[in-house]
Amino acid sequence: MFTLRKLLWSNIGLSCFHCSTLYLTFCYRYWLQEEEDIFLDSTTCVMAFRLLRLSGYKVSSEPLIQIFEDHFSDSPEGHLKNTGVALELYKASQIIIHPNELALEKQKSWLTHLLKEQLSNGVIRADRSNILISQEVDDVLKFPLCANLTV
Fold this sequence. Notes:
The protein is mostly helical and 151 residues long. The protein has helices at 4-10, 21-32, 36-39, 42-54, 62-72, 76-81, 83-92, 102-120, 131-142. The two termini are 23 Å apart. 29% of the residues are buried. The mean pLDDT is 76.
C-alpha cells in the first residue's frame, strides 16, 4: 500500500532535483488535503514541508508552528526527549519564503539555542545509538544553509 510516510522515509538523502514530479504531486496533494499520512507524525510533516518548500511549493508554515508548540511549549522534559523533532524543525525553519514568517525566525532562534545547549551539556550522548544524531546536530548548527541541500 502506498503511503507518503514510507516514501518520505525511503527517500531521505535524495536531493530535491532527483524527486519525481509524481512524488511531489502526491506530497503536495496530501499537504493541501491535510492527510493523516503527513500530519499525524511530526517528523514526516516537517520533512514534507522541507521537501515541498525546497521544490518551489508555497506551503503554509502553520503546521510547523503547531508542531513546535506541541513539542516545546512549557515542558522541560519534552525538550530533552525530542532531539530528532528539534533537528528537523530547525532545518525546516531555515526555509523562509515570506517576510511575515516571524514565527519561523523565532522558532529557528529558539531551536538553535536548544540544540547548542543539548550538545554542550551532553544531552545528546555520543554512544553508539546517538552518535549519528549528535554529529548531524553539530553539522547542521555549523553549516545551517547546507542542512537543506538534501531532504
